[in-house]
Amino acid sequence: MNAPLDLNEFHWLMAIVQSIDVGVVMLDRECRIEIWNSFMENHSGRQPGEVHQQSFFTVFPEVDEAWFRQKLETVSQLGTPAFTIWEQRPYLMRFKSYQPITGQEDHMFQNVTLIPLRATDSEVAHICVIIYDVTEVAVNKRQLQSANRELKRLSSTDRLTGLNNRGHWEEALRHEYARHQRYQSMAALVMFDIDHFKKVNDSHGHQAGDKVIKAVAELVLARVRTTDVAGRYGGEEFAVLLPDTDAEGGRLFAERLRLAVEAMRVEHDGVAIPVTISLGVADLGRRSNDYQQFIEWADHALYDSKKGGRNRTSLYHPAAQ
User: Residue 12 above 80 pLDDT?
Assistant: First the structure.
C-alpha cells in the first residue's frame, strides 16, 4: 500500500528539483552525470540526454579537475557536505549572467554545496552538486567595496592635485618617524613651494594658478617611488617623504624635480607661464624630538632657498639656524 505513495513522493521530489532556481547535478563516484535539472539545462544550453553518463569534466572542461576531484573525494571519505563560495572561486562552471540588475557581469557568480548521498549499504555512492546563483550578492558586495575604497582614497587625497592631502601625509610621516625610532631607519624629507605664486594668481588669475599647481603635482607623481609619500602641504607648498633615503639622496631627488619644473611651461589663454620652485631637504641623521621637528628642519632649509634667491635646493644644517 505504500508503493503508490512512494512513487508519488518521488514524482513530487523530482518536480521540485526541476523547478527550484538552483542547479542540481548528481554525480556517481566516477564523476559521471546522472541527474541534471532544468536550471542546468537552461544555463548550459544542454539537454539532460546529452550529458547523461558523461564525465563532468568533459561537459565542463573549465573546471579545475584536480581541485574538484579532491573536494569530491573528501566529501565521499568523510560523508559530510563541503562548500565553496564565490569569494574563494568566482564560479565552478562558467555560465553567462542573465541578471537584469547585474547584466554588466560576463559570468555568473556561484556558491556551491557538495552533499554525499548514501546508498542502502551506507556507502557514499553519489554526490549531489548544488549551484547557487549569487551574482547579485557578489556584484553588490564588490560595488560596496569599490565605493569604500574610493571614499578612503578621496578622504586622503587632495582633489586638485591627486597628491595625498596634509592629514594623510602627516600620518604617513608620523609612522615613518616611529619606524626610525624603533629600527634607526633613514628617511629624507623634501619640502618645496612654487616661487612667486601670488604673482601668477594676480597676473593670470586663479585658474592659471590651479593649472600651475596641477602641473607641478604631475611632475612630482611621475618621479616618486611607490614607497614615497608625496603630498600637498597647503596652498602652493608641497612635501615629499622619501623612506630609506639620506640627505644626499633627498638632494638629488629635489634637484631633478627642480630642473624638471624649471624646464616646464604652463600654457594659459595663449600665454606660457614660467614656473620655478624652491626646495628644502632634511633627513633623520641627527637626534630629533618628534616628527614635527623633522618638518621644521625641512621648512628651515626651504626658507634658506628662498632667502638665497629662490629656484634652488638647500640642505638643512643646524648651524644655519
Answer: no
